[in-house]
Model the fold of this input.
Amino acid sequence: MTDSNYPIYEFPDSKYLVVCGDIHGDFNILVNKVCVQYQMTDTVVIVAGDCGFGFERKGYYDNIVKRNAQRMNLANNWIVFVRGNHDNPAYFDGKTFVHKRFLAIPDYSVVRANGHSVLCVGGAISVDRSYRIEAWEHNQKKLHRFGHANDEADLLAPNYYWSDEAPIFNKDAIVNILAKNRIDAVITHTAPSFCELQSKSGRESWAEKDTTLLQDIQQERSVMDAIFNTLKSQDITHWCYGHFHQSWHSMIDGIFFKMLDIMELYELR
Done:
């Protein structure tokens, strides 16, 4: 169901809730891992960002759904996608990519599954954004020579970088959510400043030619801190995130923080 202020996604038939790290476009591999390798059933899998939406045309992602629908239906599994920095935010409006077994959800959505009520907030800063912008401009110049450049008005046109990638602190949304919901877990793409990793690989070298990068990354982590501070009066048990391509966990202020590596799976019990 959907509230006027924020969406709630309910999976009353689910028996398990699993969080997955970045998949970077490997949708078919994830389905195979969930349904075949581990033979999961009745499971909601939430991908904690960097799903890979936006590098291809929309039809490409719709075809992935068609290819995997039968397998997902037979296993009674669902995959829910949270926005990462390597995702086009336009896919995460709650309307553009909504299928029976595959959902790209907006920031500040609540997922209810297997007794959990999970707040999901996406977004982060790409440390390699200067490279991505330059590479895309070079790509478009080549295509333009042959009359194949993208329509700039098309929000779903393929790209390598999206300027609205950063996470946003929406205190009003959190307050509204907490007024009617008991949140016990949080899934984000990046993490509060007190969590690992403290520095993403190659950050300083990228910052040499991207003069506002370090400032923007600091702001990114500050947004996560603000979300944490707004939620810390709640009985949050888990906070899961991806983005850093490593695995780590720690108990901080009574919350189990779990950083997920690429394609790493973690079950919320």
Notes: The longest helix spans residues 213-231. Residues 8-126+161-199+211-268 form a domain with the Purple Acid Phosphatase; chain A, domain 2 fold (CATH 3.60.21.10). The chain is about 30% helix and 20% strand.
